[in-house]
Amino acid sequence: MFKRIPGTKDILPAEVVGWQKLEHLSREVFLAYNYTEIRPPVIEDAVLFDRSLGEFAEVVQKQMFLIKNQDDLYALRPEGTASIVRAYIENSLDKTSGFVKLYYIGPMFRLERPQKGRLRQFHHIGAEAIGSAGPEIDVEVISLADRLLRVWKIEGYKIKLNSLGCSKDKSELTAILRKGLENKIKNLCPECQVRFEHNVLRILDCKNTECQEVVKNLDIQDKYLCQDCKSHFEKVKIGLNALKINYEVSPYLVRGLDYYTRTVFEIKHESLGAQDAIGAGGRYDNLVKELGGPDVGSIGFAFGVERLLLVKSEEPAQKSGKLVFLINLGDAAKAYSYGLLNSLRDAGIAADTDYEGKSLKGAMRSADAAGARFVLVIGDNELKKNAVMVKDMQTGNQEEIGLEAIIDNLKGRI
Ligand code: HAM
User: Fold this and answer.
1) Residue 281 has pLDDT above 90, yes or no
2) Cβ–Cβ under 8 Å, residues 233 and 163
3) Counts of helices then strands in the chain (DSSP H, E)
4) pLDDT digits (tens, 9 = 90+) for 312-367
5) Which residue's CA is the nearest one to ligand 1's atom 23?
6) What is the fold of 323-411?
7) What is the distance in A from the centroid of ligand 1 to the CA of 277?
8) Residues 201 and 141: beta-carbon distance below 8 Å
9) Where in the sequence of the chain do the CATH 3.40.50.800 domains occur?
């Protein structure tokens, strides 16, 4: 028997209902904020991700699903931002639309060691606002993320916020860290000792308590931020306060992808344990230019759908409550009922039937299991009278209704 690849999931029909609801609510919120959907391919040139996320980023170093094709190296996308920026440039959206607000829903792939909330194929619901450097759009994007969480009815999350500053500030922060840590390397965890060489910023958000102690003693605060970046960050905070969005400034939040500049944020949910980020995002003001596009600022975020569903209180899967189930008794009724089934569906009424020639009792059980709202029974008797027996599964009432009136009758009641 074949089995799923570890870290992948079969999303079975009972669960799909929850997924569709989340997606539907998201689309409504995105529409309200005037974001339109984009669907880039899931496979891209691997170099796109090296360039965008940084060749020393963990995702690039260890987690890419790579596919070799003759001289080309493709990657299953580990995230959406790089693909969307590529699509923005390749399709000249800067020239046709200028500032764009896009959203996406789809699978991402990372070759991680699977555990609770950490999968190899997972899904993002994300947004990218490309083409504006103003702090107003940071406020909009964070408030959009917050609104999504409220509409999804997720409680108990925390928004952590920080500013990494511009490229110069990031270099400054890197230099402060290198200088401050050079005599303390042996006090760091083995992973941070490696990070010291290529990814020193990541030491800031290491979960190891000894590393955290070392970093705290450096007392960095926002010393590395230039005046412009400080002022940008202040405006973002003022905007969020005006909208009464709860957030916490976290000077140790750095994010694992290289493209970030200025505002970064992460949304955490304690109930998840080690993998507690349900979503994250930030500005990437240099990425569009670095990938060959115009010099425009951008910001976005992505939520991990599987993690959202882990923290969402389980709602039992609901049947639509709109299904009509047809039961036919006898050959003549059978021949007739397939036409009726078709007419119901033509009229936009969800309809199903028993395909296994079950007894009336067995077919009624199937109708019940399918969550039917009405059951129509047609036997030779009903056919003679040109009528159908209709059972309302909610009230238990039964009545005979003429075939010519049945569709209008059901339409009025469903
Ligand atoms: P990220 O933090 O790598 O950011 O991923 C965003 C979210 O995806 C995480 O907060 C988490 O909920 C979920 N996630 C990540 N990896 C996994 C996994 N292996 N299994 C399950 N869920 C996972 C980005 O990807 C950026 N592109 C976000 C962004 C958009 N920044 C700007 N625009």
Assistant:
1) yes
2) yes
3) 16, 16
4) 866 666 667 899 999 999 888 988 899 999 999 999 999 999 999 899 999 999 99
5) 304
6) Rossmann fold (3.40.50)
7) 8
8) no
9) 323-411
d(CA 249, ligand 1 centre) in Å: 20
Sheet with 72-76: list strands edge to edge: 43-45, 72-76, 65-69
Distance from residue 397's CA to the centre of ligand 1 (Å): 52
**Is 278 near ligand 1, meaning CB less than 6 Å away?**
yes
pLDDT in tens, 372-396: 999 999 998 899 999 999 999 999 9
Q: How confident is the model at residue 55 (pLDDT cuts 50, 70, 90)?
A: confident
Burial string for 320-343 (b: 16+ CB within 10 Å, else e) reads eeebbbbbbbeeebeebbeebbee
**CATH T-level fold of 13-155+255-311:** BirA Bifunctional Protein; domain 2 (3.30.930)
pTM (two decimals) = 0.92
| Start and end residues for every CATH 3.30.930.10 domain found in the chain | 13-155+255-311
Atom of ligand 1 nearest to the CA of 110: 19
One-letter identity of residue 37: E
Residue given tokens 């408030």 in the structure block? 143
List the structure tokens of 358.
Answer: 């079950």
**Residue 300 beta carbon below 6 angstroms from any ligand 1 atom:** yes
Ligand 1 geometric centre to CA of 312 (Å): 18
